What we know:
The chain is an alpha+beta fold. The chain is 40% helix and 14% strand. β16 and β17 form a beta hairpin.
Amino acid sequence: MPKNGIAGQLLRVNLTNKQISKETLSLEMFIEYIGGRGLGAYYLNKEVEPRTDGLSSENKLIFFNGPFSGTMVPGNNKINVAFKSPLSNTYSFSLCGGHFGPELRFAGYDGLIIEGKSEGPVYLWVDNDHVEIKSAEKVWGNKIAYTDHLIKEELGDENIQVACIGPAGENLSKFACITSGVFREFGRGGCGAVMGSKNLKAIAIRGSKDVEVADPEGLMKLVDGLYPNFKKSAKAQIRRSEGTNELVRDINNAGFMCTKNFTEGTSEKNKEFEGSVFREKVVYNDVSCYACPIACGKNSAIVSTKYGDVKLEGPEFETLGLLGTNCGLTEWEDVLCVSAVCDALGLDSISAGGCVSLAMECFEKGILTIEDTNGLKLNFGNGAAEVELLEMIAYKQGIGADLAEGPAYAAEKWGAPELAVHSKNMSCAVYDPRGVKGMGLTYAISPKGAHHMVAPVFGGEMAAGNRFEEKGKETLVRNTQINFAAVDSLGFCATCQNGFSRPDQLKALKLVTGYEMTEEKLLFNAERIVNIERMYNVKNGLSRKDDTLPKRFTEVPMTFGESKGQVVDLETLLDNYYAVMGWDNDGIPTGEKLKALGL
Ligand code: SF4
């Protein structure tokens, strides 16, 4: 076997006919598509017809690691899953940190493709070379932590890695996630619903194989030299102390922190959730993913609340924002409880928060009555009502069944489409784009709906002092989007870029795989990935008409705070962005562009 980091093997499991097969995977595929996200785009495009119904048995879950997975390269733990989204009806992908991806590599596989549909509930057991489809009758119906526990108990090993769905995935709530290690999620786009539609409750993995790299001594030397960078990086240090909640202070002060379904961009009460307060009041220790020198994960707890004692990993910034400030919560006990409930049910916390806040605004405006909500007083700030509504979404009860279809569907049904804050039926993340215009473009052009991590440009815009300008954002978004396609495919955590420069990333790639890649080639391949994703959607009929933002952002000026008076000029942003991408005015990659990229 060549020593190049990769396992050279793809595991394919068909749940319809129970066929399990192993396919060879070459290093050339990793060079061409870089890794996780790129290989996901390649296989989805090749094997899942773009007009496929996301919940049909023809959809697939395509998991792929990056080239560094299982090595000592810092922050290399992200595994990607590609699938057709039942939520946005688009191409979709989602990345998860923790230990699940490295465990798959230790078991001897770079990727795992799940296809077909089982007749009854099953889970997949991958124990190195032994692969088995097992009955999940005993675990079906359980929430995340108990599912994880039951599977480990049945397999007799506490140290295996389990990725599973909760009740939300089983009931096909369209923004259900897949959770690994109880608190790490493949969060966005509804991959948990896809897994539920296949009657697959969990994937359990135990791996004990070595990962052999091209130059182990050279790699150890490089990694040793990198660790001081993480100590020096101010960003890495504050993330270690306050987690991602270090962002609350600046974003709330700048007036673009989602508050009360984006009717406000800041609040004095949001100060309670600043990172330093988080650290002081609720955090009790730090948690890290595999090979992470930063440890931004935080275990938190609060005792003797109105909900009893609450303990969880998190909440990280997006969860805090969407389930917390966007629903008008002001107390830690409420935020911790709704976060823990959302995790246990297996719902994507961003979409869940976006949907609850929509229902709250509708309730306050009289669009939903107390009869509609089954007696729930859904006012902003009511944490106990939020807990109940999350359960109703996961089990598809009452108005929860409407919300489980996504915010656009629910708002349309309730006669208030203008109140749903989404793009392509996916709820927006924390950043109100009226206060940071580039994020408006990011939400609109993201292939899977309003997802911030496709091109998280807010930090760059704030540093440049031009966050209220549309001009120049097309290039910033383009470059960030291509960089993130590279980083995601390599399997790096984005936070770990602070302390790990591009030249060092390429040096690590050479030491692991033996292949020398230039930055130019890396970014060329990453741009190809972005265009494959776009073309998948184009083949499904998507175009400029689908790259939208809610009118709340384009027509309603922010009422107060540092972003007061701002709206987003989306049409200008799109015109300029399509031009720099080499796409026509309808957002479709030109033949010339595709040819230049070798597509
Ligand atoms: S910085 Fe946070 S998310 Fe990234 S690898 Fe470390 S613990 Fe995981």
